[in-house]
Amino acid sequence: MAHAYIVETARTAGGRRGGALAGWHPADLGAEILNALVDRSGIDPAAIDDVIVGCVTQAGEQAFAFGRNCVLASKLPESVPAVTIDRQCGSSQQAVQFAAQAVMSGTQDVVVAMGVESMTRVPMFSNVVLHAKAGMGEGPFSDRIAARFGTKDFSQFKGAEMIARKHGFTRDDLDRFALESHRRAVAAAEAGAFDAEIVPLAVDGGLHTRDEGIRADASLEAIGSVKLLEEGGMISAANASQICDGSAGVLVVSEAALKKYNLTPKARIVNLTVTAGDPVIMLEEPLPATAKALERAGMKIDDIDLYEVNEAFAPVPLAWLKATGADPAKLNVNGGAISLGHPLGASGAKLMTTLVHALHARGKKYGLQTMCEGGGIANVTILEAV
Questions:
Q1: Rounded distance, CA 319 to CA 164, Å?
Q2: Where would I find the beta strands (DSSP E) of the chain?
Q3: What is the pTM of this model?
Q4: What are the residues facing 202 on neighbouring strands?
Q5: Within 10 Å of residue 228's Cβ, how many Cβ atoms?
Q6: β-bridge partners, 157
Q7: Pick from 182, 221, 309, 356: most CB atoms within 10 A?
């Protein structure tokens, strides 16, 4: 079977809502990643066969063939095509999987997989709100869907509460996990672990090179004082992912392209898995998806050296740890979305960028990444550092 290789990765430092990246048009955020991937790899930009861009809220500045607009804002030639995809929070992880499938099939040799989300300039759910104001029907969930599942309220927030209760977690469990996310992110940032990942962006006052969501002063008391999202619940803004602006991408190539363009691989893609399950509890799907991915790869959880499980809400990675029996010390070793931010469509490529760098920094071999996604879907990708 043909192999797909990651030869370069890049991401912006996360920007808080209304923060350092608020002045950046999202197409320009995407363009900076495209430029960085070309510069870092040294590849001829005209050799890129396609650009696959994950983006969740495709409205306003992130509408109208948004992926193509990222290319047009970059230094890539206009001959490079692009497409925009939406698999909710897993959009750019799916972009990587589509890119790998194109390369492994032999239909393309050089593909950029990336994601962009400006949650400041294009707020979450604004595409649904715009449709409602324009009189475009009753929303995304039809009466037939409501009859099948007994609701039209498919809420990730409610799903997170359901997972916490199902798996027996307390608010203290969630808050302690959130605190550990900040502690790991602080340690990683101070050690320079993110330096090689991040593409510096010009902002007022200089260059934006540090994830704005990291809190060096985080404490269990402060996290525990944050108001709950619903009365009697366990989820708060402090033990959930942070709203974030950012972009990230990886350059995926074939073995023929490695030789033709004299490229050095950073990782080989071992397994691509996507599954779907209950759309109501929604965020639990990484558990069975991981089991399926490991089975397909002929591996066990202990064969994996590092895990990246998106911290959409603290109960998700906690439930994943409980179900898989994985070593918590190997999970999100540089922090996660609770501390670093979750720029929706960009998070899949962002996590993969961090995972590739973390594997090399620690001299480790195998990494596994998974994301919970709206609608009860989950992607799992297994990588081998080379």
A1: 8
A2: 4-11, 15-16, 50-54, 82-85, 110-118, 201-203, 206-208, 244-254, 267-276, 306-309, 366-373, 377-385
A3: 0.97
A4: 207
A5: 15
A6: none
A7: 309
Structure confidence at residue 188 as a pLDDT band (50, 70, 90): very high
Query: Residue 62: CA atoms inside 13 Å, Cβ hemisphere, count?
Result: 33
Run of H or E residues at 355? helix 347-362
Q: What is the dihedral of CA 36, 41, 45, 47, to 10 degrees?
A: -150
Place of tokens 């080989």: 268
- If you average pLDDT over residues 26-36, what whole number do you get? 98
- Residue type, position 57, single letter: T
Active site amino acids: 89, 342, 372
At position 59, the amino acid (one-letter code) is: A
Overall average pLDDT of the 47-52 stretch: 98
Element (H, E) at 275: strand 267-276
How does residue 122 score in pLDDT terms, banded at 50, 70 and 90?
very high
Distance of alpha carbon 19 from alpha carbon 339, whole angstroms: 15
Q: How many residues does the chain have?
A: 386
Find where tokens 């193509």 sit.
Answer: 68
